[in-house]
Amino acid sequence: MATRSQRAERERAERRTDALSKRRIVDAAIGILDTEGERALTFRALAARLATGSGAIYWHVANKDDLLAAATNDVIARVVTDVGEDAEPREAIRAIALGVFDAIDAHPWVGAQLSRVPWLAAMPQIFEGIGGQLQALGVPERAWFDSVSALVNYTLGVAGQNAANARRFAHGTDRGALLGAVAEEWRRLDPARYPFVHRVAARLPEHDDREQFLAGVDLILAGIVAAPPGGVTPPG
User: Fold this and answer.
1) Is pLDDT above 50 for 166?
2) Which residue ranges make up each domain of the chain?
3) What pTM did the predictor assign?
4) Averaged pLDDT for residues 14-22
5) Domain 85-226 listed as CATH 1.10.357.10
6) What is the band of 5 on the pLDDT scale with cuts at 50, 70, 90?
7) 3-state class of 49 per DSSP?
8) Is CATH 2.60.40.10 what the domain over 1-61 is classified as, yes or no?
9) What is the DSSP secondary-structure string of 145-171?
């Protein structure tokens, strides 16, 4: 039979476990990932931030991979669920895509996780959110997989590159100055060989990354609706 002190200790442990929800653990992990990066996310650092022991954390998450997956899934779930139910399909797709773009910009480790572990629950959330809206647009079923894949791959690819660029600019590099220097290099190229590059070089320093990203989403959507992949007849 347990002694009074043992029962008291067990009750204190249970209270700590109840207070230390998985929600709190995931929020604390996101805070560490955002401010210090993936290498800084250890159970010791997490326990210190939560003022608890590592054992209490292991009650909710099995290991660091489990924790990273939960944090990634949480960030993406917020993006997908934030889209209004009454949104028109095209606008809903744009909102989800831009939400993922902004989420990876704010949390660069999310993009790394989605690339490294594509079977995370976050990925089907993105596919379901965009795919359901393609279905509502009347895209034929045979074209669903290719269409949603094109949009998701574009979104993750551009968002990941944007996040990488943002980290580069964060270390004291002026974005406008850097892009201006690149544009100047383009203008020095042989205009007979690179006439198109010469024509668009001036747009490089002044372009808005989010607007350009959405322009790409719109182009892909226009192509899907006008001529769905797979040799199928477009709706309407």
Assistant:
1) yes
2) 1-61, 85-226
3) 0.82
4) 62
5) yes
6) low
7) helix
8) no
9) HHHHHHHHHHHHHHHHHHHHHHHHHHT
pLDDT reading at 57 higher than 60: yes
Instruction: Decide: 188 and 102 in contact? Cβ < 8 Å.
Output: no
Question: Could you tell me the two tokens for 149?
Answer: 């894949």
Q: Which residues contact 102 (CB under 8 A, 6 or more apart)?
A: 79, 210
DSSP output for 162-206 = HHHHHHHHHTT--HHHHHHHHHHHHHTS-TTT-HHHHHHGGGTTT
Residue 162 to residue 101: CA distance in whole angstroms: 8
Q: Are 36 and 107 in contact (CB under 8 A)?
A: no
Task: Please state at what angle helix 209-226 crosses helix 144-170, rounded to 10 degrees.
Answer: 170
Residue 30 buriedness (CB in 10 A; 0-12 / 13-18 / 19+): buried
pLDDT tens for residues 119-134?
788 999 999 999 999 9
Find out whether 83 and 144 touch, Cβ atoms under 8 Å.
no
User: What is the DSSP-derived secondary structure letter of residue 60?
Assistant: T
Q: What is the rounded end-to-end Cα distance, in angstroms, of the chain?
A: 75
Give the residue-averaged pLDDT of 209-226.
95
